[in-house]
Structures are given as structure tokens and as C-alpha cells.
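Hi C.,

You asked whether I'd gotten around to modeling the 135-residue construct. I have! Everything is below, sequence then structure, no commentary in between.
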Amino acid sequence: MQLRNQYLEALGIPDFLYSKIESKNSSEPLLKLLIVEVGAQDSFCSKGDSQNLLIKMLASIDLNIKSAQLVCLEKNLIDEYIKNNPSEAVMIMGSSYESIKSDIFLMHHPRDILKNSSLKRESWEILKKVKKCLK
């Protein structure tokens, strides 16, 4: 990318016609799935029922917890964190966060699913969309 940009610049092509954004080191693997929870109550970042359910949820779409990065953030820090930690898909759990991006999925937190089993169906539909995005 850098060599291409230098070439275009040498030809006098205006920079708004090409990208000057440097790509990350290609040997650095892109994170498969970023899972963000809002609020630390019954966090799935710690061992317990919420983490156990999250592990089962990931297994249902052929993922394991090692293929995901788990973070607990305040709502106002989510956008910046996603920007600085690119991934193939993002699941945001337990929040009223809004996004129009196709790779960001809003999901019920495992603690909420454990308290209200009627949320399972909707959560499963979202998990299927996440799986499709990761293919």
C-alpha cells in the first residue's frame, strides 16, 4: 500500500483519489470476534454462569472462547475500542448501544438470558447472523 501511494504521489495524482491509510502488518491476524459487555455485573469475563453460557453460545456457532476477545467497557468507550481493535465481527451485549454497521451485532447478555429464558430464541437468531458474517 505504501509503495503504491508513493507511486501515485510521484505521478502527481491528487491524494484524495487514493488511500494514504497505512494497512496493519499483514502477518498480524485480524481478530475473529470481539465481544463487548456493558456493565460488570455477572461479567462473562470472569468464571461463572454467564461465562459458561457464553461458551455454549459460541460453541453453537462453531467458535470457542479463544477465538474471541472479551472486554467490559463503559458505553461511551465502545466506538473507540472497536476502531482500535478491528475484528471480523463485534457482539455487544447488555446495552442500548446503536449501530448501523453490518458487522456489529446487539445481543442479550448471558446474565439476562439466564434470568429470562424467553430471550433464547432471539439470541439464537442473532448468533446465526454472526456465524454468517464470519464465513
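If it helps when you're writing up: The longest helix spans residues 120-134.

Thanks,
B.
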